[in-house]
């Protein structure tokens, strides 16, 4: 068998890869969309949204994105936390006043 030429690619195989994880249900997709939209309204920038959704919060005892996708109750808890965060005074603006 001849060696492949430099820069040439291997021919594609006809073998299909199986998914290792099941596709999300319609309800899980809906909850994911809702929590992302809620976080986006609160933070308004992609960096903080991604950080919030993927960081474990002690108040929730888990990651907001996972909890919200898991159940309607989890989505409600995450939305409640975002509401509490919105009511907190901004520490930076408060520091400027003093």
Spell out the key features of this protein.
mainly alpha, 98 residues, 5 helices
Explain this structure.
The chain has 98 residues and is mostly helical. The protein has one domain (26-97). The chain has five helices and no strands. It has helices at 26-43, 46-54, 64-70, 72-87, 91-97. It is elongated and about 65 Å long.
Structure at a glance:
The chain has helices spanning 26-43, 46-54, 64-70, 72-87, 91-97. The protein is an all-alpha fold. The longest helix has 18 residues, at 26-43.
Mean pLDDT: 84
**What is the beta-strand fraction?**
under 5%
- Silhouette: elongated
Distance separating the two termini: 78 Å
Q: Count of DSSP helices?
A: 5
- Order of helical and strand elements: HHHHH
Q: Count the beta strands.
A: 0
Helix content: 55-70%
Tell me the Rg in angstroms: 22 Å
**Low-confidence parts, pLDDT < 50 over ≥5 residues?**
91-98
Q: What number of domains? A: 1
Q: Quaternary arrangement of the chains shown? A: single chain
Which structural category do the helix and sheet elements fall into?
Answer: mainly alpha
């Amino acid at each position: 068998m001849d060696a492949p030429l430099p820069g040439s690619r291997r021919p594609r195989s006809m073998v299909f890869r199986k998914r290792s994880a099941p596709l999300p249900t319609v309800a899980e997709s809906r909850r994911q969309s809702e929590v992302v939209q809620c976080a986006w309204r609160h933070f308004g920038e992609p960096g903080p949204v991604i950080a919030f959704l993927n960081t474990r919060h002690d108040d929730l005892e888990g990651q907001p994105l996972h909890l919200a996708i898991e159940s309607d109750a989890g989505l409600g808890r995450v939305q409640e936390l975002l509401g509490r965060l919105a009511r907190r005074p901004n520490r930076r603006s408060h520091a400027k006043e003093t």
